[in-house]
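Thread: "does anyone have the structure for this chain?"

Original post by V.I.:
We have the sequence but no experimental structure in hand. Need at least a predicted one for the grant figures.
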Amino acid sequence: MNIRSSFLIFITLFLSANSIMWHLEPNARKCLREELQGNIPVIGEFDVSEIPGQIVDYIVTDSKGHILAQRADISKGKFSFTTESYDMYEICFISRVPQHQRGMAHMVSLITKHGIETKNYDSLMEAAQLKPIELELKRLEDLSNAIVQDFAFMRKREEEMRDTNESTNSRVLYFSVFSMCCLLGLATWQVLYLRRYFKAKKLIE
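Reply from O.Q.:
Generated one for you, tokens below.
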């Protein structure tokens, strides 16, 4: 496999959307989580099998509990939101079944896209009157910018983690030195106390 083939495979994986399908049990809650950077557009498309008398809701939240998207009694549709900051985002599907009804499992499928995956290049080609090769170059340019931004973000995160590790190591070192000083001070005090005690009892001179 040559370098060009590897690069094309990498682009294909980078542009591929996240698609998942599962069974949602009656009166159950299924959540999917993903870490995303700030100011990233996210769109999702879902399809829930319909079962008479049963209802499925969805809700999208961040780690602070802020609701970014929400809808009750869904069957098929889309949602979209833009991330505010680097955080863990959660998409939950909730099944609700009346007590008098025997519940059945829903089949749920979800396709999510974020970043440049959300761009509609067909509309861009029509609006800007681009040729197919120009559109492909525009797509590759956006992809390259996204890759550069991702690498810059990962480098920043690595630097933050390194700084945190160094700070933690320094604090552990200072705490260890402080603990040793406390132990030495306590041992010295015990020796002096026992010496005075034995002298008072005239056990030693």
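V.I.: this helps a lot. The first helix runs from residue 3 to 15.
O.Q.: and The mean pLDDT is 84.
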